[in-house]
Amino acid sequence: MGLFGTGVAIAVVILGIWGSLIAARRPTGFIDVPVSPLQFLVIPLSLVLLFSIFVILAILRRRDAQMHKRCMVLASLSLVEAAVGRWPLAFLRSATLLPVFVATVTFVTSEWQATKTYRTLTPSLKERNAVSI
């Protein structure tokens, strides 16, 4: 994807902020939201911020395939909340941030375990340079 994917991510951030501000400026505010538009505006803007943080991390770590994939999955999951929040099933609306939370905890735990395992499996410099006769 490369530069095209980066351009799409930038467009998502710009359009997400723009769309959120337009919806908050409407006289009726956001559709089917009982709180004031300015209070609710925090939610879409924080999700766009979370998306941009994960995409930036993915771009910076693009040489590390595992880390890049995980950051892109988390970036995608951060935007899922907006779609799931529009589902007509009321019991799912209260748990929309749960997938992002579970994915973040899983990501941090797996990275910690992978780093710990990598350090124990990596031979030391002396072991690599040792010559057996």
Characterize the structure shown:
By secondary structure, the chain is mainly alpha-helical. The protein has one domain (2-122). The protein is built from 7 helices and no strands. It has helices at residues 2-25, 37-40, 42-60, 65-84, 90-93, 98-121, 125-129. Helix 4 runs antiparallel to helix 6. The model has no long low-confidence stretch (mean pLDDT 77).
The percentage of residues in β strands lies in under 5%
How many independent structural domains? 1
Largest β-sheet summary: none
How do the SSEs run, as a string of H and E? Answer: HHHHHHH
* Gross geometry: globular
Low-confidence stretches: none
How many strand units? Answer: 0
Write the layout of secondary structure elements.
Blueprint lengths: L1 H24 L11 H4 L1 H19 L4 H20 L5 H4 L4 H24 L3 H5 L4
Helix pairs in contact: 1-3, 3-4, 4-6
List key phrases describing it:
133 residues; globular; mainly alpha; 0% strand
Q: TL;DR of this structure?
A:
This protein has 133 residues and is mainly α.
